[in-house]
Design brief:
The protein has 2 domains: about 160 residues, Sandwich (Jelly Rolls), CATH 2.60.120; about 120 residues, Orthogonal Bundle (Arc Repressor Mutant, subunit A). It is built from 12 helices and 11 strands. α3 packs antiparallel against α4, α6 crosses α7 and α6 packs parallel to α9. The chain is α+β, with helices and mostly antiparallel strands and about 325 residues long. The strands form 2 sheets. A 6-stranded antiparallel sheet has the order 1-3-4-11-6-9, sandwiched between helices. Strands 2-5-10-7-8 form a 5-stranded antiparallel sheet, covered by helices on one side. β3 and β4 form a beta hairpin. This is Transcriptional regulator, AraC family. Keywords: DNA-binding, Transcription, Transcription regulation. GO terms for molecular function: DNA-binding transcription factor activity; sequence-specific DNA binding.
Length: about 325
C-alpha cells in the first residue's frame, strides 16, 4: 500500500444510470441498487484519493435509497446538512446533521435512506487496522471486527470529526504535504487508529502475558536497527514489530520499559536527525525547510521548528543557511 501522492476526481450528474455506475465503481461494492424520489435529482461527488484511504464530499438533492450487498472497506460517514437512516444486520440508526457513523460492518449488506444534503465519507482499507494493532509474527492473526456502528461516546465522535478534518485540511488539500509518502502514510494510520478508538471493536489494546514476556531489550535493538535502515520509507508499527519478532503491544511495552518512550517517537527522533543532516548539507537556493521537513514526515512547520530547536538548540532555518 505504498503512497506516492493524492489524486482528486469530481463527478456531477443528473442521470440515474450514470450515478448508479459511478457510485458502484467508487465504493467497490459487490452489488448496489439505487432509487431516488423527485424529478430533479442531482448528485455531486468530490474525492481525494490517497491509496489506502479516500476522503469524499457528496451532495445530493433527492430522497436517495441505497441497498448494498457489501463493501470490504471501512466506511466512516459524517452528515453535515442531511439526515440519514441506516440498517445493517438488524441494527437501525437515524443520523442528523453532525452525526458520525459506520455505514456497515465490512462485507455485510446494508440499506441507507439519504435525505437531500451533504455527507462527508472516509473510506479505509481494512489492512490499515492491522498496521496499527497486530499480533506477533508467530501468533495467529485475528482480523479486527467492528462490534458497533455508532461512536462509543459523543466525545469520541468529536475526536473522529477533528481527526478527519485535520487530515483533509492539513494533508490532502496541502500540495506539498500530499506529495510526501511519509506524511500520507502517517495520515492513513492516524485515521485507522481513530476509527478503532471511536467505534467498538475486537482489537486488543492491553498487553497480554505473552506481550509482557516478549518486551525484552533484544526486541528493542532489533526494532531500532530496522528503523535506522528504513527511516526514509513509509514503515508502520506492524512493520517494526514484525522486524523485532514481537507484537505491536509488546514492542510498545518494551520501548516504555527500556527507553521510556514509544516506537514511533523513537522513529520520529531518527527522522529528525536525518532532516538535520539534509538541512546541514543542502543548498538553500534549491531547498526549503518545509520541503525537507515534509520529506521526513514532519507536516506542521511550527511544531517541527520547536522540536528541532529543543534538540539542536537552533531553528532549522539557521542550519540550512549557515
Amino acid at each position: 500500500m505504498a503512497l506516492a501522492s493524492t489524486t482528486s476526481q469530481h463527478f456531477d450528474s443528473r442521470q440515474p444510470e450514470l450515478i448508479h455506475q459511478y457510485l458502484a465503481e467508487a465504493y467497490g461494492t459487490r452489488g448496489m441498487s439505487i432509487s431516488s424520489g423527485g424529478h430533479d435529482y442531482r448528485l455531486r461527488h468530490r474525492r481525494l484519493h490517497a491509496g489506502p484511504f479516500r476522503a469524499d464530499r457528496t451532495t445530493q438533492s433527492g430522497d436517495l435509497r441505497v441497498t448494498v450487498e457489501g463493501m470490504e472497506s471501512v466506511v466512516v460517514c459524517e452528515t453535515t446538512t442531511s439526515s440519514v437512516s441506516r440498517t445493517c444486520d438488524g441494527e437501525e440508526g437515524w443520523f442528523r446533521p453532525g452525526d458520525v457513523f459506520l455505514s456497515a460492518r465490512p462485507g455485510r449488506p446494508y440499506r441507507i435512506r439519504w435525505r437531500p444534503g451533504e455527507m462527508l465519507v472516509v473510506q479505509l482499507d481494512p489492512r490499515l487496522c492491522a498496521q496499527v494493532v497486530s499480533p506477533a509474527p508467530r501468533r495467529r492473526p485475528v482480523p479486527v471486527q467492528f462490534t458497533g456502528l455508532a461512536p462509543a461516546s459523543p466525545a469520541l465522535a468529536d475526536h473522529w470529526r477533528a481527526t478527519a478534518h485535520y487530515v483533509r485540511l492539513a494533508v490532502l488539500t496541502n500540495p506539498e504535504a500530499s506529495r510526501q509518502p511519509l506524511v500520507l502514510g502517517a495520515a492513513a494510520r492516524t485515521l485507522a487508529a481513530a476509527a478503532l478508538a471511536v467505534f467498538p471493536n475486537t482489537a486488543l489494546t492491553d498487553p497480554t502475558w505473552q506481550d509482557r514476556r516478549d518486551a525484552v531489550a533484544p526486541a528493542v535493538r532489533r526494532a531500532i536497527s530496522f528503523m535506522e535502515e528504513h527511516a526514509g520509507q513509509d514503515i508502520n508499527p506492524a512493520d517494526v514489530a514484525a522486524a523485532a519478532a514481537v507484537s505491536v503491544r509488546s514492542l510498545q511495552l518494551a520501548f516504555r520499559r527500556h527507553l521510556d518512550t514509544t516506537p514511533m517517537a523513537h522513529l520520529r527522533r531518527i527522522r529528525l536527525e536525518r532532516a538535520h543532516e539534509d538541512l546541514r548539507l543542502s543548498d538553500p537556493r534549491h531547498e526549503t525547510v518545509s520541503r525537507i521537513a515534509g520529506r521526513w514526515g514532519f507536516l506542521n512547520h511550527s511544531r517541527f521548528t520547536a522540536h528541532y530547536r529543543s534538540v539542536f538548540g537552533v531553528p532549522p532555518s539557521r542550519t540550512l543557511y549557515d
